Amino acid sequence: MNVRVYLDRKDDASASVATAEVVVALVVLILVVVVVAVIVVVVVVVVVVVVVVVVVVVLVIVVVVVIVVVAIVVIVIVVVIVVIPVVVAVVVVVVVVVVVVVVWVIVLLAVWVILVFVVVVVVVVVVAVVLTVVAVLEVLVVVEVTVVAVFQWYWQQ
Predict the structure, then answer these.
(1) Number of folded domains in the chain?
(2) Domain assignment of residue 88, given as a range
(3) Which 3 state secondary structure label does DSSP give 9?
(4) Which distant-in-sequence residues (6+ apart) come within 8 Å of 6 by Cβ?
(5) Considering the entire predicted model, what is its pTM?
(6) Could you list the residue ranges that cross the membrane (predicted)?
(7) Least confidently predicted of 4-18, 68-82, 134-148
């Protein structure tokens, strides 16, 4: 209403002042709108950036946690399914091999002991037979010498 009053006046100075006031008022209004718009845009951008950063951080944390959990589960599964049976199998194989080797060594030792015993017995028997034969031969020689001596004595008489 004041603007109309100023414009209705015929005075050029008053019209200039009124026009200047309107222009200043419009400029101030535009500046206020621009400043408010810039503030709103900055606040929106900051909020969006903060939200994006928070979401990215949360997603990274979730992904890391999921990866760690999956890794732990995989390690547990691998240990339970692969490592433990392999260790048990290796232990069983080692025990079986050790038992077989020990039994084989015991059998070989027993065979060697039996063979040595047999050889010793055979040698003892052979030596005994030879000594017996030698003794018998010596007795025969003594008997022969005695018989010869007796015959010689008898014939000399």
Answers:
(1) 1
(2) 2-156
(3) coil
(4) 14, 15, 17, 18, 21
(5) 0.40
(6) 21-47, 53-79, 86-106, 112-131, 136-155
(7) 4-18
